[in-house]
Amino acid sequence: MPRKKKGASASPLESSKPVLQSIQSSAQEIKTKIMARKKPTMKFPVRSLANVKYHPQRGFFEMAGQKKERTLTVNTVKTFAQTLRMIALSKELLENDDIATKREAYYVSKNWEDARFSEQPESDTVMDDVEAYFSVNREQLGFIPEEKGGDVAGRLIVLDHDRDTGRTLRIDCTKFGSGAYSIPISVEHLQFETSADFILVIETAGMFQRLVKHNYWKKANCILISMGGVPTRACRRFIRRLADFKKIPVYVFVDGDPYGITNIYRTLKVGSGNAAHLNEYFCVPQSRFLGITPQDIVDYKLPTHPLKDVDVKRARDAIKNDPFIRHYKDWISAIEHLLKMGVRAEQQALAKHGLNYVIDRYLPEKLRHPERFLP
Amino acid sequence: MPVQLSLVETAAIKVAAGPSQQVAAEPTTLQEEAAGRNREARRQTAESMAARQRDISVSEFFTKNRHLLGFDNPQKALLTAVKEAVDNSLDACEEAGILPVLKVDIQQLAEDRFRIAVEDNGPGIVKAQIPKIFGKLLYGSKFHTLKQARGQQGIGISAAGMYGLLTTGKSIAVTSRTGAGRPAHYYEIQIDTRKNLPQIITDTVVEWEPPHGTRVEIELVGTYKRGRHSVDDYVRQTAIANPHSEIFYSFPGGEGTQHFPRGSESLPPEPREIKPHPHGVELGALIKMMKETSARQLSVALQRTFSRVSQRVAQEICEAAHLKPNSNPHLIAVHEAELLYKAINSVRIMSPPTNCLSPIGEEQILSGLRKEIPASFYTAITRAPAVYRGNPFQVEIGMAYGGDLRAEELVDLLRFANRVPLQYQQSGCAITKAVLSIDWRSYGLSQSKGALPAAPLVLFVHIASVWVPFTSESKEAIAAYPEITKELRLALQDCGRKLAGHIRAHRREVDEEKKRSYIEKYIPHIGIALREILGFSEKVESDLVATLKNTLERSRARDLAGNEGE
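Above: the input entities. Below: the structure tokens describing the complete assembly.
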């Protein structure tokens, strides 16, 4: 258990009070039920792709409203106890204005004797449950992710605060040389200044490095952001706020495979099935898919690898079950095209035509026709 | 007819027919190897070859081919000798309506030399018959009848005696008394392998305590081992399959006598004898039957020789064969017999009567398993009789599961034919094949591909038949006739379902136990968490925990009652 700060400094932030209140009232409700010799219940939204809807006007995955009720029975008593202990931990964090990473929360549970978690994925699931139960994001509960937010370089100035002096910090993303600005875990307080024409969001660190090294942002007047795989919530939120704020388009450049399309791009654009209660804030509906498209594989004669069984399964599953993919005929036919060819191509495959082919030919050619980007 | 019948029959015909060209021809081929070398060196004339061609006695044949009878190695020889004696004793007791009490005694005389003694409380043997039964191969009461019995050909015990004689030079010793007040006869007999005739070495009247019964003693070269394929295993399995018998068993290195008590006081119903069914007969046998019949007319001969052949059916067969019903069956020509054979198989004939079978019965199987195997669940099934190739047969399955049996080992498969344990050639047996053909995982057991399931399970499989189709003379494996396989599978599946029910119920119990412990384990944490959030007193916390435990226990009890009501 996190050590309680002794003394006056430990007091909740004003912003935590509504969450603390709902923690109190739901605990009270459970206690009342127990004392009335009734079995207490907790209601959670169902967190899966099967319980989300996609509205193109709103632009993100929304909960379809299915809820599961967890009644306290012999079968659920373990999870029930763990959930309550996780809520108690959150309450303590908020009251003391403290934070715990997901990993730390898992270690705290080691004090819970029989109710402890044996692996972190178990505690993460319970944490996601608590998050959904109170319909807040985990940062509001005092839990923070370990994950890195993403890297930024190019025509952008980020306005942050110095914690000690309270002065505004102007962070110029053109001035990191061959390095980059790192997106923090919390981005709500950031402000932006930019004259960029678009944001280019890139899947792999390798491709990002190449574009940064050759100052591609100068040539194309853009902001480069590296996601490093499936974008974290902070990364999605950062891009969303930046794009909304300056009304600039977002182009996404990922590997030409089912994972790049249905996991990375889809999660960036409309959010995830697992945390649909938060997607409204953690998605970038204005994203457009620059490449690598299945058609690129043909047009640019890219070297390929055969689709693995897991790729094929992922692609078929997306066509069948993903509400976003199913909404767009273009996506269905693109994925079917990929399945028909039976191959995938990585971003770096463009190096076949020369290391800087991506800068000299591919990106300029693609950017000439943004209207052809996939939705 | 099964393979070994025709084999034995050839031998039997030879004995009966005496020296004749036709029969003498075969031994030549048997000796071909030896002759082959000579032929290389110097060509033979038909005359010189004829000089060496002579009759071969059945006994001589089996001396050279003792593996056919189960005497292929010393360990198996010891087992086979005990087994033949025990089979005979049990058959004799049951036929006489006596609850068997057997004494099986194995003494080790030297490293590889043993003296076995099997004593029963059976009806005894008439003095004049003793030498023939123990000193002559292919002498017996069972070969000529279609009746369920352990022994079939009349080879076993005399072959065991012959093996003893061959390896140690000692005679087979037999003591028998047919009733109180009558003398007990003691014989020492050797078999003349040339003539297939008994040689009486000793013939006296002795003092013998039991009022009636028979004691057989054989000295032989063998190996005594414990474990699989052992005599110990054989005796134990015999005790399981024959719960109406009581066995006292003493073995080398054993302390005193092992007692297998009786599990049931009722004798199995006496099997009835039936005539062969026409659909099971082979051409050669058909010719022989027609030559030997007492009937003067073909249609009558068919009715008298076979079961389920009425006058109408006999007429139908004759018509189909284009033979006159009133023709003389003794004069049947080979091509006519062939027509008759084909006709028989084209006519629809009622299945053979099945009251000739004497299954062990579900009750008795259960009592046999219960007394010998410490398990927690027992089940058994006796299928209705079925027919293969005109021979009625019946499949029975018993299962003993759990308890002290070891969970991680492969299932202990016990195979029986007419109550006799089958210990060798497991993989070649129809029973094993049927067990392997079933997906035991659907019955809650774990099973690797192509292997027996791994479970704390003893699987008892019995086939009763008037003629069990063994794959060889030594009676170790049953041939996989489709009808037999089908019955085996149905019986296994039936028992499998019962077992699965038990396993599921048992798992539920374990689950319940686990869930009960969940209440104890996790409810205190609900108290701790709520107290941390709401900050109430320790007393409130303990009240809350007690109340919640109580609520859950009550609802669980209700759920359980609900399940049982279903």
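Note for the figure: The radius of gyration of chain B is 31 Å.
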